[in-house]
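For the sake of clarity, the format in which proteins appear in this thesis is described at this point. Each number in the token line that follows is a code from a learned vocabulary of backbone shapes. One such record is shown here in full, so that the layout can be seen directly:
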Amino acid sequence: MKKFKLLMLVVFLGGCLSLIAAENPFTEQKLQPTDTADTTTGNKDVKSESDFPVAGTIAVDNLRLRSWPWGVVLGMYNSGTSVQITGVSGEFYQVEINGQKGYMHKNYVSRPGAEASCEEPYYPGDTRSGGYMSISEGTSASKNPSTSGSTTTSGTSDTSSTSTVPAGAAEAALAGYKGGKLSPAEFGRLFGPVARENMKRTGVPASVTLAQAALETGWGGSSIGDAKNLFGIKGTGPAGTISVPTQEFVNGRMVTITDSFRKYNSWQESIEDHGKLLQNSRYGYALQYKNDPNRYAQEIHKAGYATDPDYASKLISIMKSNNFYQYDV
């Protein structure tokens, strides 16, 4: 009898355990999501953060790096250049190249498992020629690209595009520029809005500021090492000084000497210092011609700015050929 009771107890306990197991079928395995949908918005197009960063490669020459989608051009890079892709925003990859951050169109950048299509996208406004849109317009256009092939109503023209970008956004774009030669149009679009704001404060014509910076740096190709010195101003700057070889006209001929030049913490600081220099007693007289940039350039040259006898005529030629007058106020 005792053996029978013990047998019944074992059978009863075994049945209880099987019932418990049946109510908890996932004790050994966690449920996994079936897609990468954003749990907040439900948007299944959102890429998981684990997808980035990944290595990428530029697939075409002269690909623009922009400060935001369809934003200010920070530089141009050629086929085969390696990039670090850190995210996606609409039609653009967010990338980093040699420490410089920005955005590049996805059609021209290859990544593992996704070769660049190299198909020409729809260019809103004047972005095809290097123009740009405001942050809000550019981001919206990137997330909702048109396929009609006509200019969108949010596009901007070559002349008006510079005025639609807030000064703060233009300064932020300039802060992201790491140096390097730009096309004249891109040089103007990057530095023009900041030169205009500087003119409002100092009276120095923005067109002259741009022409001087373009001439002194070779369109951004050289800013005296890492000095961020756009105007070849000598002496000690807010970030110290740097000694480099330079060419000067002495007794009518070009000679090479070593001289000390000002260093700056930012491009903005260089432009501001240039404006202050041209307000001093030596060059201040020329400000009466601030509404006549050509005459202004001639007057600061007469006052001793630069030793090149053709300096003023070179500035005027740059201003005319690139319509830098559009940035004056």
About this structure: The chain has two domains: 49-163, 167-327. The beta strands are 54-58, 63-66, 73-77, 82-89, 92-97, 100-105, 109-110, 241-250, 253-262.
